Structures are given as C-alpha cells and as structure tokens.
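Cupin domain-containing protein
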Amino acid sequence: MTMEYATRYRNASRIPADPGRPYVIEQGEGDRAHLFGDLITVYAGGEQTENTFNFFTVEGPKGDIIPAHLHTDTHEVFYVTQGAVRLFAEGPDGKQLERTLTPGDFGFVPKNCPHAYRMERHHTRIVGVAAGPGGTFERFFETLGTPTEQLGLPQRPCVPEPHEFADAAAAYDVRFLPGLRWRTA
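Tokens:
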C-alpha cells in the first residue's frame, strides 16, 4: 500500500509533509521528477526536516555536463552508488578540482563554491544531500523539470524553457555561472 500525502509542492506525495514524524519509503518511491535525461527522487526534503537538509538521488545516463552553478546558502554532498560522475568544483581561492567519483566515493561542495558535474557512465546514481542555513533546494528539480510517477528515466529528455531557469534558480538558491570555464584537464 502506498500512502499519499499532500505537500505545498505537490497535490500528492509519498513523503509526509509534517516534520517530526517517522516514515519509511521503498527504493524509488519518493517524489520523482524528470529533468533533462535524469530521474530525481526526493526521499526527505525541507518540509520533513524543518529546512535543515534534504536527501535525494539523481539517476541518469552518460551525458553532458550540468551547468556551472553555486548555492549561496547550501552545502552539497555527492555520494556515488552506481556508475561514475566527474565532479568539478572551485574553492574560494580560485583553485579548481576535477575528480571522477565511482561507487563509494564522496564529494563535498561548500556553500558559495562553483561546481558542476557530468555522468561519465550510463546507469549512474548519485545520492545527494544538501544542507544550509537558508533552507534546501530539492524542489528545484520538480519545479524546473516534470513531476512523474514513472520509476525509470524519461523516454525523451525534459528540457525546460530558458525563462524557467531564472525563476526556479531564484526560488531555490541556485545561481548559474554561464561564464565559468573549468581549467582542469
């Protein structure tokens, strides 16, 4: 039996809207959205954690780099459980890091640090956690993407209109950096 909870983000959700209540979700059964060629599944968001952190997965095929961006109030974790991800990040000193993460590898990007990533292998899965004083950004994915009940990757990429990027980014602590170039190999 699947329980459906309404949240302020969705008419129906598989995760309870109120904090302080234990719950369990089977693999893949969180709130799902397609964005580009990826499937994003939220298991815990700001509404469950009083905006202290979120927990989500991103699954996708080998593909293009996710555009450079930063979060002014949010720290972000990348933990790879399947496939490979190339993580690009830049510290406050301007020094850039580029590393390929494989299952079991962990990457951390503090707030205000530009970063991007690219799936290096098909069937890649990242566990993401974001936390910070300004709240969480997990609803960015379904606001910019398309909420879905489908468990797998989208049949066709879900590409938002250009004006939608600015609206979603402003609402969810995402600042795109179109001029940033990675100097790493």
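The domain at 32-149+161-176 is CATH 2.60.120.10 (Jelly Rolls).
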